[in-house]
Amino acid sequence: MNNVHRQFVLNLICLSFLVKLCSTYTYTDVDILYKNLTSGYNKQIRPVIDQSEIMYIDSSFNIITIQDISEVQGTVTLSGFFSFSWIDKNLAWNPADHNNINSMDFPENILWKPPMVNGNAAKNIKIMTVENMMLEVQEDGRVSFFPGDSFTFTCDIDSSKFPFDTQICTMDLLTWGYSNKTLVFNDGLVATDLMGTNSGWELSSATITGNVFGKLTIPGVEVKFNFKRRSYFFIMNLFTSGQLLGFLNIFVFILPQESGERIGFSITALLAVVVFITIAEDILPATATPKLAALYELLIQDMALSGCIVISVILSSRIYYQKDQQAIPEWIRKCVGFKFCCCNKKHPNFNRHLTEPNSVHVLKSTDKIKVDLQKDENTNELTWETVSKFWDTVSLCFYLLWFIVGNMKFFIDTL
């Protein structure tokens, strides 16, 4: 019984090999089918039996890499390949009549294919084709066309929110010489399986849709890309460094006048900001359409702030070293006087001591009262040095507020 079972299994294996051998087609089979399909074939005629019918074409795009996005030139360059497929009834066959041939490859120059052109190409507009490329044809007549290249197309780039900007760009592919009454493109997918990483940009989303372009109703596809800039590098190298320079410059008003380093410190900080902006110009997008980049505006604001700080420090030093014999104008006394009125109300030393109920304590603190009175008299006497300190306090608060508001505006405008 075991021998019978073993023989049965061997027979099945041999039969399967024979079936496979019989179903394998040869060079002659392919040559015959090739000649049958191409004999009398006219690639200039749209491959539909009823020429009044609309021909539908499926489309998709496989992106390989984002090569460059130029803000100045307003162009996007990327590489990838399209996939177009359609039914050509003139190329259909019955596999049973041709030794089970299910598919064949044909040279692209002998079959009809849609003449696709890049409608918004940044350079020359030419029909998309690949020399020596093969078109795959299935038994039901479905033809697959895979043109690939490095595509450069125009895009209206808005860098006003740099470095947190996103760009929406479209690549328009048109069929040269056809209208929407003869060809219609179906919506498809954009595949990113083969896409490499770009250090400056990432692809947030992408779609490909059939569209009709212009008054001539030219059919084609619109490939829409949503690019998002990778902002970490710019935040660490431009924003953080630039704002640190501006922030440090504000604290020049804390330095004592006697040190003699205030003007030198503020001018050095101003020059540092100017040099930093000069270096940053090579990284920042050199375009003002529709407006300057937000980060560039922030750096210009830091330069203006540092320049105003230099002027304020010079004025403070000028006030501080004024001669005491020169009278202080009344309007300055009024501006500064409010501060001293508030300070005196907080320290009513004289009235507090006179109203002390304990007479013994009053006698013991007579010397202290005299000292307090002397301090009050000195406090109430307004000097140029006091005016300079008041100016420093106001300047410190003003420029700190300027710095905070400017940074808040930057994040509100960009995020």
UniProtKB/TrEMBL annotation:
GO terms for molecular function: extracellular ligand-gated monoatomic ion channel activity; transmembrane signaling receptor activity. The keyword Transmembrane helix applies. The chain crosses the membrane at residues 232-256, 263-280, 292-315, 390-412. Residues 1-24 form the signal peptide. Pfam families: Neur_chan_LBD, Neur_chan_memb. It is a multi-pass membrane protein. The keyword Calcium does not apply. Keywords: Membrane, Signal, Transmembrane, Transmembrane helix. Residues 33-188 form the Neurotransmitter-gated ion-channel ligand-binding domain. It is found in: Membrane. Residues 244-337 form the Neurotransmitter-gated ion-channel transmembrane domain. Its main location: membrane. One of its GO terms (cellular component) is membrane. PANTHER family: NEUROTRANSMITTER GATED ION CHANNEL. This is Uncharacterized protein. It comes from Mytilus edulis (Blue mussel).
